[in-house]
Write a structure and sequence with these properties.
Elements (H helix, E strand, L loop, with lengths): L12 H29 L5 E5 L3 E8 L11 H21 L4 H24 L2 E7 L4 E2 L1 H19 L2 H6 L1
Antiparallel strand pairs: 1-2, 2-3, 3-4
Length: 166
C-alpha cells in the first residue's frame, strides 16, 4: 500500500528481513574485504593521497567508536552495537516496514556487524577513509551513518497516522 506521499510502500516482514539481511551481508563483505586490502597492502599510519587536500587513504587502528569516543571501553562499544542490532531487528519485525526502512536497517546491520567483528577479533577497528576536514573512518561507519540518515528520512516520510500510532 502506498502512503499519502507515495513514498512509503510497505513490504511484508519475511521479504523485508531477507532484503535487509542481503544488504547487511553485502555491506559486511565489502567492509571486511576493504579492511583486509588496506591491512595487507599498507603500513599502519601510512597515508596515500587520492585527491590532494581533500581525500587520503590512511591506515589507522581505532579502539574507540565513531570519532574515537569511548576509546578504551570495548565492552561498552560491543554492548552498544548489540543493542543497535536488537533495535534495528525490532524495527523490521514490529510492522511491515517501508522499502526505505528496510534499506536503512540493512546498512546499519551490515555496518554494525563489520565493526563488531573487528572488535571481537582484534579489540579495535581498522579505519582508512580520511577527508582532510574530518575524522578517519571506514565503510562500516559510512554504512551506519547513511542508514541512520535514511531511517530518519523514512520516519519523516511516514504518513501522519502511522507516526502517531507508533
Amino acid at each position: 500500500m502506498k502512503s499519502s506521499t507515495g513514498t512509503a510502500q510497505r513490504i511484508p516482514r519475511r521479504p523485508a528481513l531477507a532484503a535487509a539481511f542481503s544488504v547487511a551481508l553485502a555491506v559486511f563483505a565489502a567492509d571486511q574485504v576493504i579492511k583486509w586490502l588496506v591491512e595487507s597492502s599498507m603500513r599502519l599510519g601510512e597515508s596515500i593521497v587520492l585527491i590532494p587536500g581533500v581525500l587520503n587513504l590512511t591506515y589507522i587502528h581505532n579502539e574507540g567508536g565513531a570519532f574515537g569516543i569511548l576509546s578504551g571501553s570495548p565492552r561498552i562499544l560491543m554492548v552498544g552495537s548489540l543493542v543497535a542490532v536488537v533495535v534495528v531487528l525490532w524495527m523490521l519485525l514490529a510492522e511491515a516496514p517501508s522499502r526505505l526502512t528496510v534499506a536503512a536497517c540493512g546498512l546499519i546491520l551490515g555496518g554494525a556487524a563489520g565493526n563488531l567483528a573487528d572488535r571481537l577479533a582484534a579489540g579495535r577497528v581498522t579505519d582508512y577513509v580520511h577527508f582532510s576536514f574530518w575524522y578517519v573512518f571506514n565503510a562500516a561507519d559510512a554504512a551506519i551513518t547513511l542508514g541512520v540518515v535514511l531511517l530518519l528520512l523514512a520516519t519523516l516520510l511516514r504518513p501522519e497516522k502511522d507516526r502517531s500510532s507508533g
